[in-house]
Amino acid sequence: MPSHLMKLLIGATIWAVLAFVFICISLFTQDWVDIGISGVSGSVGIFPWQCVSSNTCNVFWDTADGWDKCFFFLMLFAFIFQFFALITAAVALFIPRFRYKFTHHFCGTQGLITVLLIAELILYGIEYDRNLGGLENIPGVSVTLGYSYWQSLAAAIFSTVAVMIGGAAAKRARHHDCECY
Predict the structure, then answer these.
(1) Which among 71, 87, 130, 169 has most CB atoms closer than 10 A?
(2) Would you indicate the residue range of the signal peptide (predicted)?
């Protein structure tokens, strides 16, 4: 039967995998803001991924303001760090010799990811309608946050749960179950 530490690590890893899935969805989809005008709707993302295949991404980098770049990099770094957090969780789960050290690395990295996601949510929530130029005040026009934003919120919640469970696992590793200092 697995020890209490292993159960906590498995639980934290499952929540971290869920966070990674939702980070991927929110980063790579184009529905951060929905704009509807008399039954016709459109949406925009934080990065125009279609520019990669058409080799026109320099247009984004030349015309995007600082906030757009900030939003993109916050999500990109959350994606990259979440990938490495999953690697550290796997090492902690499968290699007992490194369990103590990598449990702490996982918890710290997951905490950083949580901070990045929460900063993204707060800043984007404040700034998403800054470039509309009064468009939202025209009758028949609706501007709302799209599903990609809400997927990012889900990722932040899953990441927070992973940090809490990972912290309990790190405490357990320090005090009880881990003999591999």
Answers:
(1) 169
(2) none
